[in-house]
Amino acid sequence: MPAFFDPYFWSLSNAELWVGVGLVIFFAILFAVGTFKKVGQALDAKAADIQANLDEAARLRAEAEAMLAKLTAERAEAEAQAKAMLEAAQAEAAQMEADARAKLAESITRRQALAERKIAQAEAQALAEVKAAAAEAGVRAAEQVLASRLAEAGTDPLADRAIAQLTGRLN
Fold first, then answer.
1. Domain ranges of the chain
2. Which parts of the chain are coiled coil (predicted)?
């Protein structure tokens, strides 16, 4: 059974009674001063502050998620642009390589034709020099043969006949 129903509890010499009376008076003073209202208001203010912080955190989170989505989209766009730039660069490099190969082939063909012309000119010049040398050698040989015939025969019968014909025609 609780001590509250015990007659000794209500005796004025009981210290527990005075503690209870002091506690009731203390709470009455607190109530009269409005401490409970102030505590309630402080708790309400703290709850409102916490709610404001939670709202701010939710707003910041929404902004962060929106920014993350935006950055993710920008990253994807940047990656797509980089991929397109890489493909364009590869295509341009392939085109430049093909152009360089074509120019190289054209240059080789042109140089080959030039070399063939130089060779043909050198052959023609060498052939002309050989012919000139052969003609010169033939002329020298003919001179020697004619000189030896003239030296042996004193006069050339063909030359004498040709001179005779000329005198008949000129008169």
1. 17-126
2. 47-125
